[in-house]
Every structure is written in structure tokens, then in C-alpha cells.
Write a structure and sequence with these properties.
By secondary structure, the protein is an alpha+beta fold. Strand 4 (about 160-170) and strand 5 form a beta hairpin. The radius of gyration is 34 Å and the shape is elongated. The N and C termini lie close together (about 10 Å).
Amino acid sequence: MNKKNILLVMVLAFLVTQFTWGQEKLLNKANQRYQEYSFSPAIDIYKRVLDKGYVSADLLKNLGNSYYFNADYKEAADTYKKLLAEYSNDIGPEYYFRYSQSLKSLGDYKASKEMMSKFSSLTADDVRAGFYKGEKDYLDEIKKNSGRYDIKSFDYNTFYSEFAPSYYKAGLIFSSDRDTGNLARYRHTWNSKDFLDLYKVDTDSLDTNHVMKLGEDVNTRLHESTSVVTSDGKHLYFTRNNFKDGKYITDENGIIRLKLLRATLIDGVWTNIQELPFNSDSYSTAHPAFSPDGRTLYFASDMPGSLGQSDIFSVTVYADGKYGTPKNLGNTINTEARETFPFITSDNVLYFSSDGHPGLGGLDVFATKIESGKYDRAVVNVGEPVNSKMDDFTFIFNEDTREGYFASNRDEGLGADDIYAFVETVPLKLVCDQAISGTVRDKITNEVLVGATVKVIDEDNEEVYTTITDSNGNYKLSIDCNRGNFVRALMQGYVPSEEYLGKSDGKPNIIDFYLERDQVTAGFGDDLAKLLQLSTIYFDFDKYNIRKDSEIEVQKVIAAMEKYPSLRIKVNSHTDSRGKDSYNLWLSQKRAESTVEYMISKGIAESRLKGEGFGETKLMNQCENGVRCSAKEHEKNRRSEFIILE
């Protein structure tokens, strides 16, 4: 055996899958060239220690992470389960996340959901513990977004109700009760006797008589409202009371529900009215809107699976005219109250009205950015003057012209509900970008790692951004601070490391990574304590017996020696400079001997061990006699070393 070139291969199962085969080839090559000691602190060593009954939060974290990063989700789930059961007060939210992901991979969706719920409750503490932490918080946020719109009354309002504008050709389609002579207010519960019909108007016309009611196939003696025309102009989707064969239909509670219908344009007439297949006599579907590509229909409903009084759902519209299964947009958008009247811009911004999110009163208009089909971005109140203390709803917006319309029942209006035109003068900030920077280094040598990969991974375990470190080991990136993200550093030949960042205020953050090597070349004189990243082995004041909380660190060394019977080590014990020099030398010698005796009691042959105390003769810093130092600086000198002997 070459005494100066003993290759200690620490195959850490922290390695991501793409590195596994490369490390195995490297390990096989090393086997051919060296007589080696190969041990793995993350799986091999830790598992041996665990099997002996020695356990700690750090051990279970590292072991669970080892399985997790290698996609061994069964073992990861079992380990995280034990971690959460025994050390729930000593772990961060990321372990609930990883446990949830592991359970999901095993098909245990119920347990996964419970862990994600716990994860969400913990990460919520990073910012606000709910929508309403305090009135000042949300009112200040609304104030920041206010003053960005110039609004004016719609030219075609009357003393009756006008609302629900939607774009159609050069004008609008909107809903009104102007022809009924009924002065009663429009009721959002839609169980009154007001009769609403759909009208169209060329908004460039100055002739108020240019307003025309849509055909009799569309309008009936009950309500018709909230419409959208497909981009090809061939189909009109709209909302109507449950009305069939000239009769209205009620549910078991006597309520006339709402339904979504589709009309087809034939020879200039909207006809061939058809119900959408997910309508029901027992719940409402209403207020249609389309995604920019026309493949997704959004609507409001209180169907089963709703979180509150009404939620916003989406459903896929296939090329053959069939529909998928409606999906709830989730609890970032929907609340236990009302979410309704969706509208999607060409830039995939979802506007909707809600009285569940923090607002100024009644229904307020909110916005959120849809990214990659996800609905987890922050929901933002658009502010005054669009929002008021009354109900503000049916907001539509043209991204190109920065113009739009909405409806409100505010007191200064002409009728019960009125449409208002607006121009957006300042864009609404929907994305919160947080600058993240730092350096990636070797954990042992402190050398910078050039070309290391740094990734941003969202809470769905999907990669959203990647960069590499420059010639100084530095990296820069930007994350969405409206959501939780994991920032992960990777380098071939090193163990990945990551940090979780919850929702934040967007202030710049510095994250430095110190990566452990997955292969360490060691030989005579090298310190196993350093290579195994052992925690400090503490002794009680003026004592030299090993404390219970330090046993697990010594057990890691024992596990390595059990695996490699030819390995011989010397235990060196050091103290700080406080106390008499002669006493420190004696105390360190006793601590070294105590450590050796402990290892012998656990089955390691005495011939393989030596122990020596050095007192304060080999300080790591300037903290010698007479020099004032902090407790932390003195602590660096109180150390144990496990030096490899020839």
C-alpha cells in the first residue's frame, strides 16, 4: 500500500442522478489503481451509526437528503418520517416539502397534501401569516397600486344597469336591463326578478341609438349576461339563468341557477344555442373568458370542489369542440368568499373580482400573472380609482392600447350599475424580482469553484432558472419573491447544497455555498474529523468523559474503522488558552485517552488507536495567553482530531 496516497472515496448519495454513473466509473478506476478506504458519511457511515441506535436530527437530515437527491423516495420518505416524528422542532420547512414530494412520488397523495399544508403554514411565517396581518399592511399595498388609471363614464350608460362589457369587433357587448323598465338594483346572487339582456354597440359611434339588443335566440325573459366571443368570431359564450323550453328551472332549494351557453354565428345571426356539458341544475356556472390562444375557457362556479361561495375554474377546449374536466385554480386565487368575473389579457394576466382578498369594500378587482399554466403568483389589488368601497367588477383590458372597461355600483354612477372606461397610465407591477448573489466554495479548502451550476427550483420541484459561477466563483440570478424557491448549487465531484427562500419583500439576498467533495484523497497525517465534517466533540467543564451528545460524532469514526480494519488513527485533543498551561495539557491528555477508551469499549482494537493531548500548544488563532478573545474564537481551539497513521 502506498502510505502517502490512500484514496478515501466518500461516495455521498447526495449526488443528483446525472452524476451517479460518472462517480461509479471513477470509483472503479480508483479501485484498479489504489488500495483504498471508501466510506460515505451520508448513507454508508450514517446508516451504520443509525443501526446501532445512535440518532440525531442532523444524521436523519443528511440520510434523508441522500436518498431524496438520488430519487430513492421510499427510503427518503421513511427517513423524513422519523425525522419529523422525533425532531419536528429542530428542522426547517424544506424537510416537510421534501417529505411531501417523496410521498407524492410514492402515490400517497393524501399524506403528501398534509405535509404540503404544514409546509405552507411554516413558510407563511416568512412574510405575513395570512391575508390580513393588519389593516395597515394591505391598505398600504393597495395605496401603492392606486392612481394608475384615468377613468370616465361609459357613453352608453342609462338610469338602469349596464355592466359586463366584453370586446366584440370595433365595439362591445354588454348586459343591461334598460328595456325592462325595472329600476331595481342588479343583484349578484341572481335570484331577483330583474331581467338582463345582452346588447352590442360600436364604441366609436356617437349615436346612443346605435345600441342594439342581440337576437331572440340569445335573449330570453330571464337573465342573460357576461359574454365572450371567440377570436375567430364564430362563437359567443354567455351566461343565462337555468331556462329550458320556455320555463325556468330551480334547484332543490328553489334557486334558479346560472348556466354557460354557446351560440354559433350563422348568416349574421347568433343561433344554435347549446349548453356546455359541465353545467348542472344543482350549481351555477357563469362569466366566461378565454385564454389568448383560445384553448382554455375560464369561468366562475360554486360546483363541487369550490373553496368558497364561488371560485374561478378553467377547462380545456379541444379542437373538435369537446371540453375537458373543469379545474379549480387553487387557493392562491380562490378563497372561502367570492371570486368571479375572470378576464385574461393577451399577456396572460388574469383579472378577476373578489371579496375574499384584501380590498376596499365589496367586490374589488385583482390581477395575477399566469406563468406556464400555474396560478401561484401573488394576487394584487389594482387599487383606486378602479376599486372603491362599493362593488367593482367585470374588468376587461387591452394590453396594446392600455385601455379597458369595468363596471361598478358606486354612488356617483348614473344607474344601478354603470360601465366605466379607463386608460392605464402606469403599468401594474405583478412580478416581484429578488436579486440573489453569492459565491460557491470548497467546504474544506475554501477555494472558489469556477463553473459550478446554480439552479432555482420552485415548490413543485421544477427547475425555473440556471446559471454558472464566473472566474471568481460568483453567481447572480433573480427569483420570483412572490413564491417559495430553492436555490441549489451543484458541481461535478461535489455534494449538491441548497437553501430555501420563502416569499419575501424582494430585498437582495446573498447566499454563499460551501460544497463538500464526494471524493477525498487522504493519507498519512490527514484528519478524519475534517474529512467527515464532524461536529465539535464537547466535554463538560473540567471533565474528560465523552458527553452523550458527542457520542454520535465518535460513532462516525468508529463506523469508518469497522469498515476498513487496516485503518489506524491517532486521537489528538486540544484546549483553548484559558486556564493554566500545565492543567490544560493534563486535561487534553485525559480527554484524548477517554476518547480512545470509548472507542475500545465499542470494539475497536487498542493496537489501532493512539491518543495524545496537546493542551493549548497548537492554537488555531491568535487567542493565546493575555489576548482578549470572544467565546466563539476560543471555541475554535477546543477541538478533537482523528489523524490517519501510516
